[in-house]
Amino acid sequence: GAGVSQSPRYKVAKRGQDVALRCDPISGHVSLFWYQQALGQGPEFLTYFQNEAQLDKSGLPSDRFFAERPEGSVSTLKIQRTQQEDSAVYLCASTQPQGGQYEQYFGPGTRLTVT
Amino acid sequence: SQKIEQNSEALNIQEGKTATLTCNYTNYSPAYLQWYRQDPGRGPVFLLLIRENEKEKRKERLKVTFDTTLKQSLFHITASQPADSATYLCALSRGYSTLTFGKGTMLLVSP
Description:
heterodimer, A: 115 residues, Immunoglobulin-like, B: 111 residues, mainly beta, globular
């Protein structure tokens, strides 16, 4: 079946612009995670949804970052007034926590470059 | 604060040899430890999960050990192939929760 998809794959924004990144998780997956990955680093947690509820947003670096998943499927990560330090790959992952299956399925990521 | 350390430098080995990657952690008591593979321009792909009460887990050419006393996991790839060249990420969690990743170790297998 289809995996996790993300769009756009690449985004160039001028500093100060707003951007919206989309994630389509695997159909039926209850949980959805957003991670930020800087060059040469491992992914860092941003936020987590279970269905439409945002259960943890402790990793969001500032109030310029906002995520939503209104119908419990597709999720959008929005970054307002982008800054150069926001340049990174944004990864989305989904999982279905049944039977002790804790592995996460990642999308290809959106590479954001802020100029 | 939590800290996860993986081999800081890239690991270069010859085809057919066993690759061993290390993951050490501090200030953390994970219930689960996972290993992922990441190729350039792609998202991480799950390889293996080991629980805190398990010492070793195997899957085909892969083997993971987990020592909660030493706070260390070792990841082995036997009979390595050039196609195994990638970055390998160690990730910890306390259960069904977010993953905390290390920086990853780049493995290069030469023919």
